[in-house]
Design goal:
Strand content: under 5%
Number of helices: 18
Radius of gyration: 21 Å
Mean pLDDT: 75
Structural class: mainly alpha
Distance between the termini: 13 Å
Helix content: over 70%
Length: 377
């Protein structure tokens, strides 16, 4: 794949993740129309039914690629368990520690968790662009949530320290599981499994795991037509449609980039709260939104082209570089060589299709460019 093709692929992936983040940002406003529904029920109906719908849509692809999914069953199960845990931890964190603290801990630390996972498991290197974008996005999210906390505070009904700490702990669990299922889905997709099959398998099993929670806590969802409409909307629009877009995005960008792009979600939620619910956002909140937008601009802006005589592996360059003699991250090299060896033993067509892509993957890709496995199929 040429440099221009990789840039277009990364752009498509970024747009898909941003579109998913916009849909996810509507969940808070939607939940205000069903105040009698608890956080566990909201999380279970959203992720549970949304995941089952994804599996139903992807049933033909899952059937055709069942053998590949079985070969990666450990990754599939890790992603599915993370999908089941994430909504329960996320919505409970907001209930215990408050919406502001729960949001900033759950979403703000997810990119850091993704970076650690990809560094340890895949051997990826952080680029200066990624670190700048992460800094801007995290700072913007903190300012936004602090502004919301200041607006909501009235000096009464403050949560106890133990409750707040428990909410923060659950927020960290939500961040870790969000990063894990994003990484698992991206890993499946880059191992010659279609994004629809990967997301359908991971979220379908995760949805099955959430069904007992939904049965135990979901009675308020059928107590009124409004509650039922909110539950249906949460399952179909932000979760089903949103994660279909997210899966397509993960086919083009790594999980660490996707989790930064999804920082648009709290900004969208804050704007909708102002426009739809009638809340007021302090100046610090608007500053936070501006920083999140700056983060997205840094991450999605086209890379500056180098002069013809300049080396692609110059010292201090902020990326990992291209296929021409650049350094190979040790972890990524070991994992990719193992994958090629497994494919050779299995005598699958995948071994022949990966010839051109292996050079780029073993050389290490820039985190902000991504890879589209669809070009190899």
């Amino acid at each position: 794949m040429s440099r221009d093709d990789r840039g277009r692929s990364a752009g498509i992936g970024a747009l898909c993740v941003l579109a998913a983040s916009v849909l996810w940002g509507t969940t808070g406003t939607a939940a205000t129309f069903a105040p009698g529904v608890g956080p566990l029920a909201i999380g279970a109906v959203a992720m549970g039914l949304g995941g089952l719908l994804q599996a139903l849509l992807a049933a033909p692809q899952i059937t055709r690629q069942a053998s590949r999914l079985r070969d990666r069953r450990g990754t599939v199960l890790l992603g599915a368990v993370s999908v089941a845990v994430y909504p329960l931890a996320f919505y409970s964190s907001m209930r215990l520690a408050g919406v502001a603290v729960g949001t900033v801990v759950s979403l703000g630390t997810a990119p850091l968790a993704s970076a650690v996972i990809e560094r340890v498991v895949d051997g990826r290197r952080l680029t200066r662009r990624w670190m700048l974008a992460a800094t801007l996005g995290l700072l913007g999210t903190v300012l936004l949530c602090v502004a919301e906390a200041a607006r909501a505070a009235d000096g009464t009904g403050q949560a106890s320290a133990v409750t707040t700490l428990l909410g923060i702990a659950l927020g960290l669990v939500a961040a870790a599981t969000y990063a894990l299922y994003s990484w698992a889905a991206h890993r499946l997709i880059t191992r010659e499994i279609s994004s629809r099959a990967a997301m359908g398998a991971v979220f379908g099993i995760g949805g099955l795991l959430l069904l007992p929670v939904l049965l135990a806590t979901g009675a308020p969802l059928v107590a009124s037509w409004t509650n039922a409409a909110v539950g249906t909307y949460m399952a179909i629009v932000p979760m089903f449609a949103g994660y279909v877009l997210f899966g397509r995005g993960l086919a083009h960008v790594p999980a660490s980039t996707a989790t930064i792009l999804s920082l648009l979600e709290p900004a969208v939620a804050a704007v909708l709260a102002v426009l739809v619910v009638g809340e007021r956002l302090p100046a610090a909140g608007w500053t936070g939104i501006a920083l999140v937008i700056a983060c997205l601009a840094v991450l999605t802006a086209p890379s500056r082209r180098r002069s013809r005589g300049q080396s692609r592996n110059t010292a201090g360059h902020d990326g990992v570089g291209g296929p021409e003699g650049t350094q190979v991250p040790v972890g990524a090299a070991v994992l990719d060589v193992a994958d090629v060896a497994d494919a050779a033993l299995a005598r699958t067509p995948w071994r022949r299709r990966r010839t051109g892509g292996d050079a780029e993957r073993l050389a290490g890709r820039r985190w902000d460019q991504g890879e589209s496995p669809g070009t190899a199929r």
